[in-house]
Amino acid sequence: MESSGDKLRALLLALALHLLCALALFGGLWWTQETRPVVMPGPVIEAVLVGPTAAPAPSGTRAPTPRPAQPKPEPPTPEPPKQPPPQPESPKPEQPKPAEAAPPPPPPDRQDVIERERIAALAQEKAEQEKKEQQERVRREQILLEEQEREQQRQLEEVRKKREAAEKKLRDEQARMKKLEADRKAMAQAAEAERAKAAQAAAAEAEQRAAQAQTGAGGQDNDLAARYAAAIQVAVTSSWNRPDSAQAGLRCALQIKQIPGGDVISVQVVSPCNADAPTRASIEQAVMRAAPLPYQGYENVFQRQITFNFKYDG
């Protein structure tokens, strides 16, 4: 922006320029008027100056003295064309003054310099600290991510091992059940063979007793009783599931309570008996499974309570 001093100088310069233009115009007009010739209006008269002489005597008629030819009037000198008044020169646009150089800043105060340096050092230290913290966060996040990946792999491995263990356990269990089923079938077949063998032995013994009864006292009733005992032996032996602890030469007395028709009310192993507890229990269960015991055809020798001798010779 221009200062008020610059504006004043520009105004004075413009006034001086206008004054010079006015003086030049006035001088030109004055010079033109001084050099212009004065021309009188009307014809031009020429006069001749003569010295003093005697006047001529009048005479009669004197021829008129011819008048000299009057020169033609000169045409008036044309006025020079008026010069147009000089126009005032338009003021030239004022050239912008170069901007004055800003004065150099005053030297900073020593205390301000120290304070700025301290603030800059603190800012740099804070930036470095934030950079270290950022790097530490990135490092911790990377460690956490690696730990999560390892934990995920560990869990997957654990699941795989558990699945393989479960599959192996299932295969082992299936194999064990298959073996148990095969063993059960084999034992059932062996038991069936033993029951058939025992039944045959009981039948042979019953026949032998019947033959002996026929030769002794007692007659037909003893023979029927012997055949009745043999029939009970066959029925009980066929229903017996022999335990592994049962040995050949087994002998056990049984007290059986029954009703007409052969339904068993109770059974109990009594002495003498050379079997262990599991074998005794298996014999009692065999009697209950064999019920109803043989009855039809043996009505004459039927008794509600009988003592039955169970035998097993292997």
Automatic annotation (TrEMBL):
Signal peptide: none annotated. Residues 119-216 form a coiled coil. The keyword Coiled coil applies. One of its GO terms (biological process) is bacteriocin transport. The keyword Coiled coil applies. Residues 65-90 have a biased composition (Pro residues). InterPro entries: Tol-Pal_TolA. Keywords: Coiled coil. Residues 55-111 are annotated as: Disordered. GO terms for molecular function: toxin transmembrane transporter activity. GO terms for cellular component: membrane. It holds the Pfam family TonB_2. SUPFAM superfamilies: TolA/TonB C-terminal domain. This is Cell envelope integrity protein TolA. It comes from Rhodanobacter denitrificans.
